[in-house]
Amino acid sequence: MDGIEHCIDGEIPFDIPESWVWVRFFSVIDIATNLVRPDTYADYMHIAPDNIEKATGVLLECRTVQQDKVVSPNHMFYKGQIIYSKIRPLLRKAVIAPFDGLCSADMYPLNTSVNKEYLLRYILSDTFNLQVATTMSSRVKMPKINQDELSNILIPIPPIQEQERIISRVKELFDKITLI
């Protein structure tokens, strides 16, 4: 973040294959904050933390900005961005946006240079959540993670073909679970 390379050897949570690399969140993610006034976007769909099922990446029913009676500035987001809740982040509320819209200022729209499904699954993982918990361990009253803290989280990045293979396998397993 400061333009200086820092050694992360002492922070690495676990060993990864040689073809993978550990990176900080900010090196593969752009936190695309874009606060807008809601009154000019009344017909846009609105996503708040309550619209995302915890720890699953599933978007629940949403309503328009007008129906939700949104009055304060919200972030504009675009289809395909990951929407991540910075408030009570241990609930793991994140989803890939299926449409353009506005999201609560308590959320971050994220752009990424890696496979979105892979990144979403990692954000929902215990490993990511443990790093978030450690980062914000001193916050008790209002647990939230700021951009600087989030930017320093470590992420293991496999080659693109491996990202795709992992996501394919995860989808296959979730499909089997759904059948049970």
UniProtKB/TrEMBL annotation:
It comes from [Ruminococcus] torques. Signal peptide: none annotated. InterPro entries: Restrct_endonuc_typeI_TRD, Restrct_endonuc_typeI_TRD_sf, Type-I_RE_S_subunit. One of its GO terms (molecular function) is DNA binding. Residues 82-179 form the Type I restriction modification DNA specificity domain. This is Type I restriction modification DNA specificity domain. Pfam families: Methylase_S (PF01420). Belongs to the type-I restriction system S methylase family. GO terms for biological process: DNA restriction-modification system. Keywords: DNA-binding, Restriction system. The methyltransferase is composed of M and S polypeptides. It comes from the Bacteria.
